[in-house]
Amino acid sequence: PRAHAQPTIEALVEASARGWKKLHRVVLKECMVQGDRLEQMGEMLRSSRELVSLDLSQNSFERTGAATLAQFLADMPSLTHLDLSMNKIEDPGITSLAPVLSSISALQCLSLAHNYIQAQGAQHLSNSLPQCSRLHTLSLEGNGLADGMARLSACFRKCESLTHLGLAFCGLARNVVPLADALPFLSSLRFLDLRVNGLGCQPISVIGEKIGGCVSLTHLDLSNNDIGPA
User: Fold this and answer.
1) pLDDT tens string 108-118
2) Of 133, 167, 176, 214, which is most buried with the most CB atoms under 10 A?
3) Among 100, 94, 113, which residue's Cα sits nearest to residue 71?
4) Which among 138, 200, 142, 134 has a CA at the least distance from the CA of 171?
């Protein structure tokens, strides 16, 4: 039997021009949307004026793709959910994206998990995220954030709507104090994920001394940390 042809990006762009104006959610997870394809997809998404949720996870479009992405995200101020996880964005890509994120006033959920973000990227995020006044869910799992935690923790204090914070696999064992000091100020935080951070007894004690100030916290995940007896 004849195989069904996969739709090309060009075909999707053409179809969008004919009437995708009412799309609310687009999922393009693991679709190899990179380079020119990402630019073409951006043109398609620009026509979807009611778009509120965009999932571009696992496309590995890297730092150059992040710069392209920033150009069309600026035209999507109504986005509430944005998933850019697992795209190898790195610090230079975050440098391009961060100013645009601050302009998406409706943003509520943001995932930048597993993108090789380190101190420089953390600094740019810390400047932009407090301007996202509706942001309640932030996923930063799988990034090397220990050296950027002081800046990020100061940023978290300003994110008054933050209820869910994902910091698993971030290598926080050697610099957990800034996060611990910020916890009493996160009055809306309900969910905190600190899995697989190499946290031993001393870092856990530091967190334990402060976490009582998180008056709304209902879920704390410390799985796969070394908190047993010495």
Assistant:
1) 999 999 999 99
2) 167
3) 100
4) 142
